[in-house]
Amino acid sequence: MGKEGLRKRGVWQDVSGAKATIAEQNFLDVFEHLFIGTSYKVRKKPQDFQSVYNKVNLDEQVLREIYTPPIPIVRHGVCPDYAIENTITMKTLYVEVKRQDGWVEGKPRSAGRGNAHERSCKFFTPGLQKILREKGGIAPPALPFWTVFQGDIARDPCRVREITCWYGEYAAHFFMWRDSTSPIPLVTHFNKHLKHLLE
């Protein structure tokens, strides 16, 4: 990629990051308001797993074959966007809010080129699921996380099909917040499909 291409890429990332921050704040506003006077709370950027990868043991052969930095790695983990916690049962559901552009009316198909939805799939991995379950107290068969998609991705015919396929029988664990000006569908989904996991 040339200098001009890199310059434009940086601008795109700034805009994308700003939109993502707004999406996350919308989610926070809804649930902070919803939980007033209840045993539930929403925590932003929980640090529960900030060093989780540091605890992964590698055998001696692997350690000999990889780079060992001279300075110890202190923080290497994952940070969900939110944690919804029942302060009585101490059960926690971890939340990712993914805002992404998409292929909708008036836009070319290439508008759906982002990969935020793919990056959210890390929580499907056996290792992270086990860690999230242990910390949050969410037992199988339910998933210990919830992903909320916002923006045009929630209406993109390709991305909606991909996400629906990936989640399969776990459809309760994702939500397409298509009209983020209305919290009602989001709250209804949480109350109907997920709240009982925290009781």
Please state the overall shape, judged from the principal axes of the Cα atoms. Answer: globular
- Content of β-strand: 5-15%
Quaternary arrangement of the chains shown? single chain
H and E order: HEHEEHHEHEH
Spatial strand arrangement across the major sheet: 1-2-3-4-5
Number of strands: 5
Classified in CATH, the superfamily is Eco RI Endonuclease, subunit A
Q: How would you state the average pLDDT, rounded? A: 89
Class per helix and strand makeup = alpha/beta
CATH class: Alpha Beta
The helix content, as a percent range, equals 25-40%
**Cα gyration radius (Å):** 19 Å
The helix count comes to 6
Q: Can you name the CATH architecture?
A: 3-Layer(aba) Sandwich
User: What is the CATH topology descriptor?
Assistant: ECO RI Endonuclease, Chain A
Please give the domain count.
Answer: 1
Taking the alpha carbons of the first and last residues, their distance comes to 51 Å
Which spans have pLDDT < 50 for at least 5 consecutive residues? 1-22
Structure explained in plain terms:
It is a single chain. By secondary structure, the protein is α/β, with parallel strands linked by helices. The chain has a single domain, classed as ECO RI Endonuclease, Chain A (3-Layer(aba) Sandwich), CATH 3.40.580.10. The chain is built from 6 helices and 5 strands. The chain has a 5-stranded mixed sheet, sandwiched between helices. The relative contact order is 0.14.
SSE layout and pairing:
Blueprint: H1 3-34, E1 40-44, H2 60-65, E2 82-86, E3 92-99, H3 116-119, H4 126-136, E4 145-150, H5 157-167, E5 174-177, H6 184-194
Parallel strand pairs: 3-4, 4-5
Antiparallel strand pairs: 1-2, 2-3
